[in-house]
Amino acid sequence: MELQPFQRDNYITQTEAAKAYKMSIAAFKALVAGLDAIERKNRIMGTYKVDIKYYLKADFLERLEMNKKKALGN
Question: Which of 6, 21, 47, 61 lies at a C-alpha separation of 20 to 30 Å from 35?
């Protein structure tokens, strides 16, 4: 079935979805690396900081898995 022009605007291919998924993983890794750098700096400086990295990781991975299931229709 041929897509109408208005449908093509909102249509995402499986390749584009895979690229977006990989980019979100890369962005998350960059975020964790940045948080690690902040943690190292704070350890060197001796300042106190609440470690939110683990909470962010759990929340992000949970949302990513939920979006993946939604995209696959499970």
Answer: 21
How many structural domains are present in the chain? 1
Is the pLDDT score of 48 beyond 60?
no
Whether the full predicted model's pTM is greater than 0.85, yes or no, is no
| pLDDT value of residue 15 | 83
- Interatomic CA distance for residues 34 and 52, integer angstroms: 12
Assigned domain for 36 exists = yes
Residues 6+ apart with CB under 8 A from 57: 28, 32
In a domain, 8, yes or no: no
d(CA 48, CA 64) in angstroms, rounded, equals: 30
pLDDT recorded at residue 52: 63
26: pLDDT strictly greater than 80:
yes
Domain contains 4 = no
